[in-house]
Write a structure and sequence with these properties.
The complex is a heterodimer.
Chain A: H1 5-14, E1 22-25, H2 28-35, E2 41-45, E3 58-61, H3 64-75, E4 78-79, E5 82-83, E6 87-91, E7 97-106, E8 111-117, H4 124-130, E9 136-140, H5 148-155, H6 162-181, E10 184-194, E11 200-202, E12 206-209, H7 218-221, H8 231-238, E13 242-245, E14 250-254, H9 257-269, E15 276-279, H10 286-297, E16 304-311, H11 316-329, E17 336-342, H12 345-354, H13 363-374
Parallel strand pairs in A: 14-16, 16-17
Antiparallel strand pairs in A: 1-6, 2-3, 2-6, 4-5, 7-8, 7-10, 8-9, 10-11, 10-12, 13-15
Helix pairs in contact in A: 2-3, 5-6, 10-11, 11-12
Chain B: E1 11-14, H1 19-30, E2 35-39, E3 47-48, E4 51-54, H2 57-64, E5 68-71, H3 75-87, E6 92-95, H4 102-114, E7 118-120, E8 126-129, E9 133-136, E10 145-152, H5 156-167, E11 172-177, H6 188-197, E12 203-209, H7 214-225, E13 230-235, H8 259-268, E14 272-274, H9 280-290
Parallel strand pairs in B: 1-2, 1-5, 2-4, 5-6, 6-7, 10-11, 10-12, 12-13, 13-14
Antiparallel strand pairs in B: 3-4, 8-9, 8-11
Helix pairs in contact in B: 3-4, 6-7, 7-8
Classes of the chains: A alpha+beta, B alpha/beta.
Chain lengths: 378, 291
């Protein structure tokens, strides 16, 4: 789960991570009022995607008039598909040097990797490609804790003054506590800035949280921004389905994420285009099939639907019963191509057969058939 | 005959009395697995059919001599279930449960290893040596005994591939689903190593997906260390960037973890890459002929 910069900043403050002063506003007038306390401010769009600077979502302003004018422009923007509803007005700190500081869950080292570079303020992914050696990395392991001396010699790579290192060590320790205590998967400060007064400040903040761990943290769950997912994706989540909207015309309902991805790949390979990724998950009770088809059918681009089930923990008879329930409850006005194999396959096929429905065995056949159906060829 | 599990594996089931747990405990037993007990706290002394239920893993191990445990408990309790199995020195732990917090897994990963245990999963279908032992949720009837090893990050996609292999008369030595999460107990490389050393495995099928760099690292290992042929398949070729495709681990971000990069890494390691699951048996046959 992603949160906005201002939400991340609030958490930074709770963890005593120094940030520059800021106020959250929702329109240009509020921005003007908020800016009165400072000489120069930065107005920043609050959106859940990166690249807002390039999209014109971050602007410097020197007077209340300028703040209002620039905030008016920013609040009218759409960045990466997100409308700008909120803005941050921040005291514009003068910067002597910009660093990047990040903690990220490291899959291949089974730990949390601390990343630091003195070439901050730029796109870190670009830097990783152009000049990977500029980014220093140190992998931390939660069961071991942080060793101050190791951290200090690591920081010496990029920060020569001891006084600054001391500030950075405190920030990193607090950031690490924030990461562990809230089950984050990514925490970033970019830029992490040195001011002429010798202070190390977080001028930006980004946190991603592990969806699997949200049950432990209701206060983090409460930060969820509904715009992160489409309404269909949100509804799917509450019903225990995993759903992603795509832009084709073939609806898909598959059990298992890997098979669902492979099914979309096959549709594309055979010349079709899927309208969605939908994993009904394991242990599906019949209602899940009804919910899944309901969400798929809401998309009016759908010309045909492929149901691809390879039963393991999911039982083919549950799916078959669900499909029959769905036929009764929903108005299914497009061709339904069903492929059913695996656990309780015989029972599932018998249930469908009794209702006059056929199930295909071979996946390639099913994919070819649904593409033909979507093109209106039988 | 196989890797990790065989006829002598004695299995206990953590969460044996739940809806899924009891269904799959019975299925595993029907499929010939030596299920020696189940664990549900508070239900010790009861039975699931003829299978004795215990309150804790250590009691079950003491009473049955179990050397493997499979976990079906809900996500909220799965971390402590793995730790309980590890505390009881169970050498092979298989966690089927999906949705285990990732930082819990970071800690568990190191804990299990420090005790030389093997953890498969979480969020995985388990493993099967056809005809000998099945620890997991895969439909046993699609498998055939044979000499192809299968390793996969996915569940149902593995069944798809195994089904294609069996229909082409290519039986399997052992099939393992390693799980779709960012942090998993056992990754491709360790299993490739076991298959390379297993005298009853002639070739390996590796099923990968977008996200992370496990496939790239596996390709490096194959290039350097493996003599047996490997055929790969990578799902998620049509996936858009930045969208998590179901599995917590299956996401392309910052241009990393793309299917194209993984396919390229395999090809550079002389691994044949299939475009569809149904192509896999043909590629395996061709690779074996070349040997």
């Amino acid at each position: 789960m992603k949160v906005h910069e201002y939400q991340a900043r609030d958490l930074f403050k709770t963890y005593n991570i120094p940030v520059n002063d800021y106020k959250l506003v929702s329109n240009a007038k509020e921005a003007r009022e908020a800016s009165m306390a400072w000489k120069q401010v930065v107005v920043k769009a609050q959106v859940l995607v990166g690249g807002r600077g390039k999209a014109g979502g971050v602007k410097l302003a020197n007077s209340p008039e300028e703040v209002e004018a620039k905030a008016a422009v920013i609040s009218g923007l759409e960045i990466g598909g997100y409308r700008v509803d909120k803005m941050l007005v921040c005291d514009s700190a003068s910067i002597e040097k910009e660093y990047y500081l990040g903690l990220i869950l490291d899959r291949s080292r089974q730990g949390i990797t601390l990343m630091l570079t003195d070439q901050g303020g730029v796109d870190i992914e670009e830097l990783a490609e152009i000049n990977p050696s500029a980014i220093h990395r140190l992998t931390l392991h939660p069961h071991k804790g942080i060793d101050g001396a190791t951290l200090d010699s690591f920081l010496a790579n990029s920060i020569s003054l001891e006084g600054l290192r001391r500030q950075a060590i405190s920030t990193i320790k607090n950031l690490y506590s924030l990461f562990l205590e809230n089950d984050a998967s990514l925490v970033e400060i970019n830029p992490y800035a040195l001011t002429p007064g010798g202070k190390m400040l977080a001028l930006d903040s980004k946190i991603n949280f592990d969806d699997n761990a949200l049950f432990k943290h209701p206060e983090i769950e409460a930060l969820r921004n509904p715009e992160e997912s489409s309404p269909d994706e949100l509804e799917a989540r509450t019903k225990g389905l995993s759903f992603v909207s795509l832009d084709g015309d073939i609806g898909c309902m598959v059990n298992g994420a890997g098979l669902a991805m492979a099914t979309l790949d096959l549709i594309e390979l055979h010349g079709g285009k899927a309208a969605n990724f939908l994993d009904v998950g394991g242990s599906s009770n019949p209602q899940k099939a009804v919910d899944a088809l309901g969400i798929i059918l809401r998309n009016n681009r759908i010309k045909a639907i492929l149901i691809n089930i390879f039963g393991g923990i999911t039982r083919c008879d549950d799916i078959a019963n669900g499909l029959l329930m769905a036929r009764k409850k929903l108005d299914i006005d497009v061709p339904l191509i069903i492929r059913l194999v695996g656990t309780n396959e015989k029972e599932g096929r018998a249930i469908l057969k009794e209702a006059g429905l056929d199930a295909i065995y071979d996946l390639d056949d099913a994919v070819r058939k649904v593409i033909r159906a979507a093109r209106g060829v039988s | 005959m196989s890797i990790l599990v065989d006829k002598n594996t004695r299995v206990i089931v953590q969460g044996a009395t739940g809806r899924d747990g009891s269904f799959h405990t019975r299925k595993m037993k029907e499929d010939g697995t030596n299920i020696v007990g189940g664990i549900t706290p508070g239900k010790g002394g009861l039975k699931l059919d003829t299978i004795p239920i215990f309150d804790s893993v250590s009691e079950a191990k003491e009473a049955t001599g179990a050397n493997a445990s499979v976990i079906f408990v809900p996500a909220k309790f799965a971390s402590s279930a793995i730790i309980e199995a590890s505390d009881a020195s169970i050498p092979l732990i298989v966690c089927i449960t999906e949705g285990v917090p990732v930082l819990d897994m970071v800690k568990i990963y190191h804990l299990v290893r420090s005790r030389s245990g093997v953890l498969i999963g979480p969020n995985c279908p388990g493993l099967i040596s056809p005809g000998e032992c099945k620890i997991g949720i895969m439909p046993a009837p699609i498998h055939r005994r044979g000499s192809i090893g299968v390793i996969s990050r996915s569940g149902t996609l593995t069944y798809e591939v195994v089904n294609c292999l069996s229909n082409a008369d290519m039986g399997q030595s052992t099939c393992i689903g390693i799980g779709g999460d960012p942090i998993i107990g056992t990754d491709y490389i360790e299993l490739l190593e076991l298959f390379e050393a297993d005298k009853n495995t002639d070739a390996v099928v590796l099923i990968g997906e977008i996200g992370g760099d496990s496939e790239e690292r596996a390709a490096g290992f194959i290039r350097r260390k493996m003599k047996k042929p490997v055929v790969a398949f990578v799902s998620g070729r049509s996936a858009p960037e930045g969208k998590r495709m179901g599995h917590a681990g299956a996401i392309i971000s910052g241009g990393q973890g793309t299917a194209a990069a993984k396919v390229a890494a395999f090809k550079a390691a002389n691994v044949a890459v299939a475009d569809t699951p149904s192509e896999i048996p043909g590629l395996v046959a061709r690779q074996l002929e070349r040997q």
